[in-house]
C-alpha cells in the first residue's frame, strides 16, 4: 500500500532504500518460513547458474534485483496483469506509473524450493523458484536449468496474464552479449551469449563461453508470446495488451528477453512456468579433454534438453516434495527444528557448486566425473579439503558423489603426473580447468590432504560396499598412509584446511587428522599395523597428554608447549562417524565440557587466536559432543543464520565473538560455498544413505503423481 502511494509520487526507490535500512526483525508485513535466511536460493544448480534474492530485499520484492552468488545484480522481472492492470511481482526496478507493486505477504524456503506469496489487488500470486536436488538421478541433477512457476489463486473470473524477463547481465559481459531465439516445437527459447567467447573463461566468477537460456512453453490453458529488445518497449507491450509482439529488436546492452503467458479468464487457481539456465557444450577442461554435462548423453541439443526438463516437471516436483519433507523430518529428529532450518537452507547450495559430466567426444554415460568449484576463495577445482567438509551430505544422500569427485584426482595421481610424496591439494588453479599441476606447484597441505583421502575413501566404501574402486588404487594409497606414519607426530610447519589462519607446526588438530586417517586406512585395507599405530598415536595425544593441557581439560592448538591454547578438534568426527574408536569417549566428554566455557555471542571460534568460526567444522564437532553442548552449537549457528545482519548466500565463515573488536554475527569473505554440506554431519550419524533410502521408500509408497496435478489445477509447465 505504502509503496504504491510513494511510487505514484516517483519516490518508490527512496522508500525502497529506507526499508532496506530497517532490521528484518522489525518488518512485520512479510512472514518468513520456516526462518529468516540471509538469502533465498532462486536458481541454484551449478557454479554458473546460481541466482539468489537477499532477504533484506524481500520486503520490496517488486522492485528488488536478484544477485549472482558473487554479488552481481541481475534482472529477473516478473509481472502480472489483472483485468488490464499490471502489477510488478519481482525485479521491476523502475516500473513507471502504469505498473503497481504487488504486496509481499510471505517468503518460504524448503530444501529445493523458495516460494514468495504476493497479492495484486484481490488476486494472490505465488512465485515458486524450484531447483531440483536429485543427486541419485544424474540426468535430472545435471540439467543446467531451474524452474519458476507462477501460480494465480483466489481469482474470481479475472483476466490474467503473466510476464517474465531477464537481461544480458546473466551472460557475464553485458556489453558484449549477443541474443539468439528459436521456436522448438511449442517452446520459445532465448539464448544470451558473449560474442567471440574464449572457451573455459570467466569474468568475475561468471562463465563467459556458454549461453544463458530463458524459455517457456504454453500450458494447456495458456497462450505464449515473446519479445526482446529495449526494456521499456517490451514492458510497454505487456502493459498495453497483456501479450508480447513477437518482435526481436536490434540487441543493445540493457535490453531484455521476455516471455508472457495469457491465461485468459481464471476462476480458482492456475499455474504457468518458465525455465532459466546456463549451458556449456564443453563444460570442463579435464587434462586437455572437454567434458560436457551428463544430460547430453540423452539430449545432445539445448532444445531437446529443455523439452525433457519441462516434461520432467511433474516427476521432479513430486520427488522434491518428498525430499523436502524427509530432510526436514530427519534433521529435526537428529537435533531439533532449528537444525532442520539450517540443513534445508544448505541443500541447494551444497550441490550448487558441482557439475556432473561425461566425455564430450563419446557422450559415454558410464564414464561419469564430477567437478566442484571452491567458490568464494580462489576458485580451485576439486579441492580435496572442500570435498572433505562437504562429504556428510553426500554420505546421507548419495555417497557415489565421493567417488565421482575424487576420481579425476585419482586418475591423475595414478598416471604419475604428481610426484610429491603427499596428496595434491586440488585438480586445477581455477574452475573449469582441471589440468592438474604438472609443475608440482600447488598449495601444500601434506597432512591435511593425505588424511582427507583416507577418510573419504573409507566413507565411500562404508556407504556403498564398493571395494573394487579403492582396490584399484590401493598401491597408490599406501605411500600416502606411510606419509602419515612418518610425519604425523613431528609435524613440520604447514597449512591445514583453514589456510586463512596461517601455517603451524605440531598442530594438534592436524595430528588428530593423521591419526584418524591412519585408522581409516587400516579399516579400509585390513592392514592392522596402521590401525595399531593410530591407536598408539591417540594414546600419545590424549592419555599421555601431548595434545592436551596439563589438566586435560581440552585439546591444545599446538603441542608441546601451548597449554593455554585451544582449537576446535573437528577432525575427530570421522572417528565417531565410522565407530573407529581411535579416541576414547573421555576425549569427547572433555570437549563437551570445555566448549561450553569458550562459547561467545554466536558460538565457538575456530581457535583461541581467531574471532571467526567455521559453520561446517562446528557441525562436525557438534556431532562428537553430548546432546546439551551439541544443541548449543546448533542454536548458535541458527542464531547467526537468522540474525538479519547479512545477505550473502549462506556463509560458512563468520565472526562469532566481539572479543577482538569485530561485529559478531556477520560473514567473512565466504559466499555460497558447497562446504555447507558439512552441516549434515549430525544427520550422517543416522547412517549412510539414510536420507537417500528414506526418499526412495517414500516415493515408492506415495500415490500416483496425479495428486500433484490436481493440486496444480491440471497445468503442467
UniProtKB/TrEMBL annotation:
Domain named Glutaminase A central: residues: 336-682
Pfam family, one: GtaA_6_Hairpin
Alphabetical list of InterPro entries matching this protein: Glutaminase_GtaA, GtaA_central, GtaA_N
Residue intervals of the Glutaminase A N-terminal domain: 112-328
Highest rank taxon of the organism: Eukaryota
Name of the protein this chain belongs to: Glutaminase
Annotated source species: Aspergillus taichungensis
